[in-house]
Prior knowledge:
flat; mainly alpha; 46% helix
Amino acid sequence: MSGKITRRRLSEKLQGKTDWKRVDALTDADIATAIQNDPGTSEASREWFRDAMVLRPATDKEPITVRLDSDMVTWFRSQGRGYQTRMNGILRSYYEAHRGNPRR
């Protein structure tokens, strides 16, 4: 495991770069305008909702041992908690696409 571990006391305040006073001063209208003007934001269409699939988690998981590329595992772990569940979801999507009978 690589990386630097930083220990802090609970009493130490973490200093971030967020201007919380400015954030607290935003109104709902300000936020709605910012969302509307953000080119990376889009509203899901009716077609998207029509074609969306709800994948329910399997209740019967089987513990296995599998060998994966270390850089891939490191990347998934860096995404935080639930990385194994996300890996399972990606494998399930592949499986469903090739099995031809997705469960809903």
